[in-house]
Design brief:
By secondary structure, this protein is α+β, with helices and mostly antiparallel strands. It is built from nine helices and five strands. It comes from Oceanobacillus luteolus.
Length: 327
Amino acid sequence: MKLAQIYWISIAVLTVIHLEFTGQATPFHIPIYIPIILVGGLTFFINRKVVLHIQQLGDKVNLQLYSLQILILIIYISLEPSWGVFIPFLLFIGVEVFRHKISRQLFRTQHLLDSQAKKIDQMNETFLVVRKERHDFLKHISALHYMLENKQYHEAENYVDELVEGYKETNLSIQGERGTVAGVLHQNYQAGKEKGIEVIYDLETAISSLPLTDHDTVALIGNIIGNAIDASSEWQNEKSKQAHITLQTYKRSGLFILNCKNDTLPLPNEVLDHLFTKKATSTKSGDHAGLGTQIIADIVNRYGGHLDYTYKNETFTLHIKLPAFLK
Protein backbone atom coordinates (compact mmCIF):
# COMPACT_ATOMS: atom_id res chain seq x y z
CA MET A 1 0.00 0.00 0.00
CA LYS A 2 1.34 3.43 -0.93
CA LEU A 3 2.22 6.06 1.69
CA ALA A 4 -0.57 8.34 0.45
CA GLN A 5 -3.20 5.61 0.84
CA ILE A 6 -1.99 4.74 4.35
CA TYR A 7 -2.04 8.43 5.23
CA TRP A 8 -5.61 9.09 4.08
CA ILE A 9 -6.97 5.94 5.76
CA SER A 10 -5.23 6.67 9.08
CA ILE A 11 -6.28 10.34 9.12
CA ALA A 12 -9.87 9.41 8.21
CA VAL A 13 -10.02 6.89 11.08
CA LEU A 14 -8.64 9.41 13.58
CA THR A 15 -11.05 12.09 12.37
CA VAL A 16 -14.02 9.75 12.88
CA ILE A 17 -12.84 8.95 16.42
CA HIS A 18 -12.46 12.64 17.25
CA LEU A 19 -15.90 13.43 15.87
CA GLU A 20 -17.39 10.63 17.97
CA PHE A 21 -15.84 12.06 21.14
CA THR A 22 -16.70 15.69 20.35
CA GLY A 23 -20.25 14.60 19.59
CA GLN A 24 -20.63 13.91 23.29
CA ALA A 25 -20.60 17.68 23.92
CA THR A 26 -23.74 18.18 21.85
CA PRO A 27 -27.27 17.49 23.07
CA PHE A 28 -27.88 15.35 20.01
CA HIS A 29 -26.88 11.74 19.66
CA ILE A 30 -25.30 11.31 16.24
CA PRO A 31 -25.06 7.72 14.94
CA ILE A 32 -21.48 6.60 14.21
CA TYR A 33 -22.25 5.89 10.56
CA ILE A 34 -22.93 9.59 9.88
CA PRO A 35 -19.34 10.74 10.74
CA ILE A 36 -18.01 7.75 8.78
CA ILE A 37 -19.97 8.76 5.67
CA LEU A 38 -19.07 12.45 6.03
CA VAL A 39 -15.37 11.81 6.63
CA GLY A 40 -15.21 9.21 3.87
CA GLY A 41 -16.76 11.57 1.33
CA LEU A 42 -14.63 14.51 2.42
CA THR A 43 -11.44 12.42 2.33
CA PHE A 44 -12.26 11.18 -1.18
CA PHE A 45 -12.85 14.76 -2.38
CA ILE A 46 -9.68 16.19 -0.77
CA ASN A 47 -7.61 13.26 -2.05
CA ARG A 48 -8.54 14.23 -5.62
CA LYS A 49 -7.84 17.95 -5.14
CA VAL A 50 -4.79 18.12 -2.86
CA VAL A 51 -1.24 17.22 -3.90
CA LEU A 52 0.54 15.56 -0.98
CA HIS A 53 4.16 16.31 -0.20
CA ILE A 54 4.32 14.42 3.12
CA GLN A 55 6.93 12.04 1.66
CA GLN A 56 9.39 14.93 2.08
CA LEU A 57 9.17 14.41 5.88
CA GLY A 58 10.14 10.76 5.66
CA ASP A 59 8.46 7.75 7.25
CA LYS A 60 9.98 8.37 10.69
CA VAL A 61 8.68 11.94 11.11
CA ASN A 62 5.26 11.06 9.69
CA LEU A 63 5.00 8.15 12.15
CA GLN A 64 5.99 10.43 15.04
CA LEU A 65 3.31 12.97 14.11
CA TYR A 66 0.73 10.24 13.73
CA SER A 67 1.71 8.80 17.14
CA LEU A 68 1.29 12.27 18.66
CA GLN A 69 -2.18 12.49 17.15
CA ILE A 70 -3.06 9.13 18.73
CA LEU A 71 -1.77 10.29 22.13
CA ILE A 72 -4.01 13.35 21.90
CA LEU A 73 -6.97 10.95 22.12
CA ILE A 74 -6.00 10.19 25.74
CA ILE A 75 -7.01 13.75 26.71
CA TYR A 76 -10.65 12.80 26.15
CA ILE A 77 -10.48 10.39 29.10
CA SER A 78 -9.85 13.21 31.60
CA LEU A 79 -12.54 15.51 30.17
CA GLU A 80 -16.13 15.74 31.23
CA PRO A 81 -18.73 16.01 28.47
CA SER A 82 -18.52 19.74 27.72
CA TRP A 83 -17.30 22.12 25.10
CA GLY A 84 -13.78 21.39 26.35
CA VAL A 85 -13.78 18.17 24.30
CA PHE A 86 -13.14 20.32 21.24
CA ILE A 87 -9.61 21.10 22.51
CA PRO A 88 -8.13 17.68 21.53
CA PHE A 89 -9.84 17.94 18.13
CA LEU A 90 -8.25 21.36 17.55
CA LEU A 91 -4.86 19.97 18.63
CA PHE A 92 -5.32 17.12 16.13
CA ILE A 93 -6.06 19.61 13.35
CA GLY A 94 -3.08 21.75 14.43
CA VAL A 95 -0.68 18.81 14.10
CA GLU A 96 -2.12 18.09 10.65
CA VAL A 97 -1.71 21.71 9.53
CA PHE A 98 1.88 21.63 10.80
CA ARG A 99 2.57 18.41 8.84
CA HIS A 100 1.37 19.90 5.54
CA LYS A 101 2.98 23.30 6.04
CA ILE A 102 6.42 21.86 6.77
CA SER A 103 6.19 19.24 4.01
CA ARG A 104 5.26 21.92 1.44
CA GLN A 105 8.18 24.10 2.53
CA LEU A 106 10.57 21.14 2.27
CA PHE A 107 9.19 20.29 -1.18
CA ARG A 108 9.66 23.85 -2.43
CA THR A 109 13.19 23.98 -1.01
CA GLN A 110 14.11 20.68 -2.64
CA HIS A 111 12.55 21.79 -5.93
CA LEU A 112 14.59 25.00 -5.80
CA LEU A 113 17.80 23.08 -5.05
CA ASP A 114 17.13 20.67 -7.93
CA SER A 115 16.41 23.61 -10.23
CA GLN A 116 19.65 25.35 -9.24
CA ALA A 117 21.64 22.14 -9.73
CA LYS A 118 20.10 21.71 -13.18
CA LYS A 119 20.98 25.28 -14.14
CA ILE A 120 24.58 24.76 -12.99
CA ASP A 121 24.82 21.57 -15.06
CA GLN A 122 23.47 23.40 -18.11
CA MET A 123 25.94 26.25 -17.66
CA ASN A 124 28.84 23.83 -17.20
CA GLU A 125 27.83 21.91 -20.32
CA THR A 126 27.67 25.09 -22.40
CA PHE A 127 30.99 26.30 -20.97
CA LEU A 128 32.67 23.01 -21.87
CA VAL A 129 31.36 23.23 -25.42
CA VAL A 130 32.74 26.75 -25.83
CA ARG A 131 36.03 25.76 -24.20
CA LYS A 132 36.39 22.75 -26.50
CA GLU A 133 35.71 24.89 -29.59
CA ARG A 134 38.31 27.43 -28.46
CA HIS A 135 40.81 24.65 -27.75
CA ASP A 136 40.39 23.22 -31.26
CA PHE A 137 40.42 26.60 -33.03
CA LEU A 138 44.16 26.69 -33.74
CA LYS A 139 44.03 23.11 -35.01
CA HIS A 140 41.34 24.11 -37.50
CA ILE A 141 43.40 27.12 -38.62
CA SER A 142 46.43 24.86 -39.15
CA ALA A 143 44.36 22.42 -41.18
CA LEU A 144 42.99 25.24 -43.37
CA HIS A 145 46.46 26.71 -43.82
CA TYR A 146 47.76 23.35 -45.05
CA MET A 147 44.86 22.96 -47.53
CA LEU A 148 45.35 26.47 -48.93
CA GLU A 149 49.10 26.01 -49.24
CA ASN A 150 48.47 22.87 -51.26
CA LYS A 151 45.75 24.62 -53.31
CA GLN A 152 43.05 22.27 -52.00
CA TYR A 153 40.48 25.04 -52.27
CA HIS A 154 37.41 22.83 -52.58
CA GLU A 155 38.39 20.80 -49.53
CA ALA A 156 39.06 24.02 -47.60
CA GLU A 157 35.66 25.41 -48.54
CA ASN A 158 33.88 22.27 -47.36
CA TYR A 159 35.92 22.31 -44.15
CA VAL A 160 34.95 25.94 -43.46
CA ASP A 161 31.28 25.14 -44.10
CA GLU A 162 31.43 22.34 -41.52
CA LEU A 163 33.11 24.64 -38.98
CA VAL A 164 30.59 27.42 -39.50
CA GLU A 165 27.68 25.02 -39.07
CA GLY A 166 29.12 23.73 -35.80
CA TYR A 167 29.90 27.17 -34.40
CA LYS A 168 26.47 28.44 -35.47
CA GLU A 169 24.79 25.93 -33.15
CA THR A 170 26.67 27.24 -30.13
CA ASN A 171 26.35 30.88 -31.18
CA LEU A 172 22.57 30.56 -31.42
CA SER A 173 22.42 29.65 -27.74
CA ILE A 174 24.99 31.98 -26.15
CA GLN A 175 24.84 35.17 -28.22
CA GLY A 176 23.98 38.01 -25.85
CA GLU A 177 22.62 35.66 -23.17
CA ARG A 178 23.49 35.20 -19.51
CA GLY A 179 25.03 31.88 -18.53
CA THR A 180 21.83 30.40 -17.07
CA VAL A 181 19.76 31.26 -20.13
CA ALA A 182 22.48 30.18 -22.56
CA GLY A 183 22.63 26.86 -20.73
CA VAL A 184 18.92 26.08 -21.04
CA LEU A 185 18.86 27.21 -24.70
CA HIS A 186 21.87 25.09 -25.60
CA GLN A 187 20.61 22.02 -23.76
CA ASN A 188 17.20 22.16 -25.43
CA TYR A 189 18.78 22.80 -28.84
CA GLN A 190 20.86 19.66 -28.40
CA ALA A 191 17.85 17.71 -27.09
CA GLY A 192 15.86 18.64 -30.19
CA LYS A 193 18.77 17.83 -32.47
CA GLU A 194 19.17 14.37 -30.91
CA LYS A 195 15.51 13.66 -31.72
CA GLY A 196 15.88 14.90 -35.27
CA ILE A 197 13.82 18.05 -34.64
CA GLU A 198 14.87 21.33 -36.26
CA VAL A 199 15.03 23.97 -33.52
CA ILE A 200 15.23 27.56 -34.77
CA TYR A 201 16.11 30.46 -32.46
CA ASP A 202 15.03 33.74 -34.07
CA LEU A 203 16.05 36.02 -31.21
CA GLU A 204 15.91 39.65 -32.29
CA THR A 205 16.00 40.54 -28.58
CA ALA A 206 18.04 38.49 -26.10
CA ILE A 207 15.94 36.35 -23.80
CA SER A 208 18.13 37.52 -20.92
CA SER A 209 16.55 40.96 -21.31
CA LEU A 210 13.16 39.55 -20.28
CA PRO A 211 11.81 41.53 -17.29
CA LEU A 212 12.01 38.41 -15.10
CA THR A 213 14.32 37.02 -12.46
CA ASP A 214 16.93 34.49 -13.59
CA HIS A 215 15.00 31.66 -11.96
CA ASP A 216 11.70 32.58 -13.60
CA THR A 217 13.34 33.17 -17.00
CA VAL A 218 14.89 29.70 -16.98
CA ALA A 219 11.63 28.11 -15.78
CA LEU A 220 9.60 29.95 -18.44
CA ILE A 221 11.91 29.21 -21.40
CA GLY A 222 12.70 25.69 -20.23
CA ASN A 223 9.03 24.73 -19.98
CA ILE A 224 8.09 26.41 -23.27
CA ILE A 225 10.79 24.67 -25.32
CA GLY A 226 10.50 21.44 -23.33
CA ASN A 227 6.77 21.20 -24.06
CA ALA A 228 7.40 22.04 -27.72
CA ILE A 229 10.03 19.29 -28.02
CA ASP A 230 7.73 16.70 -26.41
CA ALA A 231 4.82 17.59 -28.72
CA SER A 232 7.03 17.78 -31.82
CA SER A 233 8.66 14.45 -31.03
CA GLU A 234 5.28 12.69 -30.81
CA TRP A 235 4.16 14.36 -34.06
CA GLN A 236 7.38 13.38 -35.77
CA ASN A 237 7.11 9.74 -34.68
CA GLU A 238 3.50 9.57 -35.84
CA LYS A 239 3.95 11.37 -39.19
CA SER A 240 7.46 10.13 -40.04
CA LYS A 241 8.40 13.70 -41.02
CA GLN A 242 10.88 16.15 -39.53
CA ALA A 243 9.28 18.39 -36.94
CA HIS A 244 10.13 22.07 -36.52
CA ILE A 245 10.23 24.40 -33.52
CA THR A 246 10.68 28.16 -33.84
CA LEU A 247 11.32 30.39 -30.82
CA GLN A 248 11.05 34.08 -31.65
CA THR A 249 11.61 37.18 -29.51
CA TYR A 250 11.42 40.92 -30.22
CA LYS A 251 10.36 44.21 -28.62
CA ARG A 252 7.55 46.41 -29.83
CA SER A 253 5.98 49.50 -28.19
CA GLY A 254 7.30 48.77 -24.70
CA LEU A 255 6.40 45.09 -24.88
CA PHE A 256 8.63 42.04 -24.95
CA ILE A 257 7.07 39.60 -27.42
CA LEU A 258 7.84 35.89 -27.26
CA ASN A 259 6.37 33.40 -29.74
CA CYS A 260 6.93 29.67 -29.94
CA LYS A 261 5.60 27.59 -32.81
CA ASN A 262 5.81 23.80 -33.04
CA ASP A 263 4.23 20.81 -34.76
CA THR A 264 1.81 18.78 -32.66
CA LEU A 265 -0.69 15.99 -32.97
CA PRO A 266 -4.40 16.98 -32.92
CA LEU A 267 -5.43 18.38 -29.54
CA PRO A 268 -8.88 17.54 -28.12
CA ASN A 269 -11.14 20.51 -27.38
CA GLU A 270 -11.26 19.64 -23.67
CA VAL A 271 -7.47 19.90 -23.54
CA LEU A 272 -7.32 23.15 -25.54
CA ASP A 273 -10.00 24.76 -23.38
CA HIS A 274 -8.01 24.27 -20.18
CA LEU A 275 -4.43 24.74 -21.37
CA PHE A 276 -2.41 27.08 -19.12
CA THR A 277 -4.97 26.85 -16.31
CA LYS A 278 -5.02 24.99 -12.99
CA LYS A 279 -7.25 22.42 -14.69
CA ALA A 280 -4.62 21.73 -17.34
CA THR A 281 -3.99 18.08 -18.16
CA SER A 282 -0.97 16.78 -19.97
CA THR A 283 -1.13 15.47 -23.53
CA LYS A 284 1.95 13.32 -22.87
CA SER A 285 1.65 9.60 -22.44
CA GLY A 286 2.05 8.37 -18.89
CA ASP A 287 1.27 10.03 -15.57
CA HIS A 288 1.59 13.78 -16.04
CA ALA A 289 -0.42 16.66 -14.65
CA GLY A 290 0.24 19.42 -17.18
CA LEU A 291 2.46 21.25 -14.67
CA GLY A 292 4.62 22.79 -17.42
CA THR A 293 1.77 24.85 -18.85
CA GLN A 294 0.63 25.87 -15.36
CA ILE A 295 4.13 27.12 -14.52
CA ILE A 296 4.25 29.15 -17.75
CA ALA A 297 0.87 30.75 -17.02
CA ASP A 298 1.79 31.51 -13.38
CA ILE A 299 5.00 33.29 -14.39
CA VAL A 300 3.31 35.36 -17.11
CA ASN A 301 0.49 36.39 -14.74
CA ARG A 302 2.91 37.24 -11.95
CA TYR A 303 4.67 39.80 -14.15
CA GLY A 304 1.50 41.34 -15.54
CA GLY A 305 1.88 39.75 -18.96
CA HIS A 306 -0.61 38.37 -21.45
CA LEU A 307 -0.67 34.80 -22.76
CA ASP A 308 -2.53 33.53 -25.79
CA TYR A 309 -2.27 30.46 -28.00
CA THR A 310 -3.61 29.15 -31.28
CA TYR A 311 -3.89 25.69 -32.79
CA LYS A 312 -4.38 25.23 -36.51
CA ASN A 313 -3.46 22.48 -38.98
CA GLU A 314 -1.43 20.52 -36.40
CA THR A 315 0.61 23.62 -35.52
CA PHE A 316 0.57 25.05 -32.02
CA THR A 317 1.64 28.67 -31.50
CA LEU A 318 2.16 30.26 -28.11
CA HIS A 319 2.09 34.08 -27.86
CA ILE A 320 3.39 35.85 -24.75
CA LYS A 321 3.57 39.59 -24.15
CA LEU A 322 5.38 41.06 -21.16
CA PRO A 323 5.95 44.70 -20.17
CA ALA A 324 9.55 45.43 -21.14
CA PHE A 325 10.10 48.04 -18.43
CA LEU A 326 9.61 45.96 -15.25
CA LYS A 327 13.30 45.15 -14.91
